[in-house]
Specification:
By secondary structure, this protein is an alpha+beta fold. The protein has eleven helices and twelve strands. It folds into three domains: 105 residues, 2-Layer Sandwich (Beta-Lactamase), CATH 3.30.450; 84 residues, Helix Hairpins; 150 residues, Histidine kinase-like ATPase, C-terminal domain (Heat Shock Protein 90, 2-Layer Sandwich). It has a five-stranded antiparallel sheet with strand order 2-1-5-4-3, sandwiched between helices. Strand 4 and strand 5 form a beta hairpin. It is elongated and about 105 Å long. The relative contact order is 0.06.
């Protein structure tokens, strides 16, 4: 039985990489079939014309500078430039080349990286588009927070003009005080949002030592009328982990959105119960917020739960923003968020800071 001897020529014929010998005079001296296949020119055309004529005009100067390096006996590793095929298509090639000075030749191997470069270009375009959208969102947030301060200030000035001593009904006085306190809380939050936008220009959002009980109390004071109207009972226990180094506005927003969602998606046939606890796990602080509300079918909402404008209940106030904000607050400083939920039994959000 005769054993076939696989030759180097066989290898050159079969490899998809472009292999060539080029002279210091700028012409191809020897090429494998892949060069013709990729560029679309016949061997005769490739041998008869200077290599520069096949290179993209914009890449000719940098290619020449790299050739000069080769003449200085310096190998060329992973140099990328563009060629133009006979059909006019741009081809990206990544070259590794070695000089053969005594023969004034260059031995070179190139890989066709056009697909990778196109993917990179698409990715860069998407990132650029995303960056523009983020800038638009930041401007919109700034404008909203800034412009809302004026009407809020006007409402507060009205409360300052009210003389509660002239109001005999105690329940009315308490209601006015609740509205006034909620409005002051709104004003404080708007100011914090503006400060946060300014902080975002810095490398890292400011972290500080926060007391869970204090932040929760501030949040509840701003939504006290809603809490009262829903007859919600909140049970909280921060004994195991009372404090956390975190961004104040983020933690307040997490409490506000999870509690607001619990109120929004409660079951009207049972009193709303919300349980908030913290504890330590493997050196990390964990916060859980549980409710006995409508719950969700996690199989149906998987992959969409924390997306912008994603809603899963037919509620007039559902905008699909709350969980998106919570998720991004947590992820922006390296935390994790897990959800357990069952239809008709409620949800538990577990945040590991």
């Amino acid at each position: 039985m005769t054993q076939h001897q696989f030759s180097f020529e066989d290898f050159l014929d079969l490899t998809p990489d472009l292999v060539c010998l080029a002279g210091y005079d700028g012409f191809f001296k020897k090429i494998n079939p892949a060069v013709s296949q990729v560029l679309g020119y016949s061997e005769k055309e490739l041998y008869s014309r200077p290599i520069d004529e096949f290179i993209h005009p914009e890449d000719r100067p940098v290619t020449q500078s790299q050739r000069d390096r080769l003449k200085e006996r310096k190998p060329l590793i992973n140099f990328e430039n563009r060629y133009v095929s006979k059909s006019g298509k741009t081809i990206w090639l990544s070259w590794t080349s070695w000089p053969i000075p005594d023969q004034e030749l260059v031995f070179a191997i190139a890989k066709n990286v056009t697909d990778r470069k196109n993917h990179e270009s698409t990715r860069e375009a998407l990132l650029s588009s995303l960056s523009e959208k983020n800038e638009e969102l930041k401007r919109l947030t700034y404008i909203t927070a800034h412009d809302l301060r004026s009407p809020v200030a006007s409402i507060l000035s009205v409360f300052e003009l009210l003389d509660l001593n002239k109001i005999d009904d105690q329940e009315t006085r308490e209601l006015i005080e609740l509205i006034s306190r909620s409005t002051r809380g709104l004003k404080d939050n708007l100011n914090k949002y503006l400060e946060l936008i300014a902080e975002k220009e810095k490398p890292k959002s400011e972290l500080e030592l926060l007391n869970f009980s204090e932040i929760l109390a501030q949040v509840l004071s701003t939504i006290q009328p809603l809490v009262s109207s829903t007859n919600m009972h909140i049970d909280f226990d921060f004994a195991q982990a009372p404090e956390l180094h975190y961004n104040r506005l983020y933690l307040g927003s997490i409490f506000l959105n999870l509690i607001s969602n619990a109120m929004k998606y409660r079951r009207v046939e049972v009193p709303l119960e919300v349980s908030i606890k913290t504890f330590k796990s493997e050196g990390r602080t964990v916060l859980t917020v549980s409710d006995n509300g409508q719950g969700m079918d996690l199989k149906k909402v998987r992959g969409k739960l924390f997306g912008m404008n994603q809603t899963f209940h037919q509620h007039a106030d559902s905008k699909g923003i709350g969980l998106y904000l919570v998720y991004n607050h947590i992820k922006s400083v390296g935390g994790d968020l897990a959800v357990e939920s069952e239809l008709g039994k409620g949800s538990t959000f577990t945040i590991t800071f």
